[in-house]
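TICKET #2291
ISSUE: user wants both folds in one file
ATTACHMENT 1:
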Amino acid sequence: MNKLMGLFAFIVLVAFLAILVIHVPRLDLSAVIALTVLLAAWDLYTTHRARHMATHVSHVHAKLTSYVSVCAPCGSCKDPMPPEAR
């Protein structure tokens, strides 16, 4: 749902800025708007990627901790993987 709302907000922003460029056709304004759209797109992409990576890391952490007696990221694990999992 958050991804859809973010995408909808990005589309609304682009539509508003496109109307502005159409009604005020100036090169400097177009450059600023292009930069704004690129920054918003980059923010949307990195926000989605950060959530995806956090989910991926938690899944990997869950798999690792199922193999060890102590949490793998803490560095005090005796055997990070049993021999049959190697």
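ATTACHMENT 2:
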Amino acid sequence: MNPAPNLFLVGPMGAGKSTIGRALAAALELPFVDLDHEIEQRTGAAISLIFDLEGEAGFRMRETTLLREQAAAAASCSRPAAARC
């Protein structure tokens, strides 16, 4: 059973979002996107370095921008954001 074409997990750092997200994506046959990993890939910098250089506000701005991108991509093509239209 797939309850939705896209699921977004939110929670505090270290809560297990990535671990649960991967398992949930596999069980529901959905692609998995880890925003931290995606940010690191796009910037070429570790999350810890982004926090050191830009602070939490800078990181949250990047995270929010990427989440909006993912949500818009998912909404525009009725497929999971990671599937890319």
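RESOLUTION: both attachments delivered.
EXTRA DETAIL ON ATTACHMENT 2: The radius of gyration is 14 Å.
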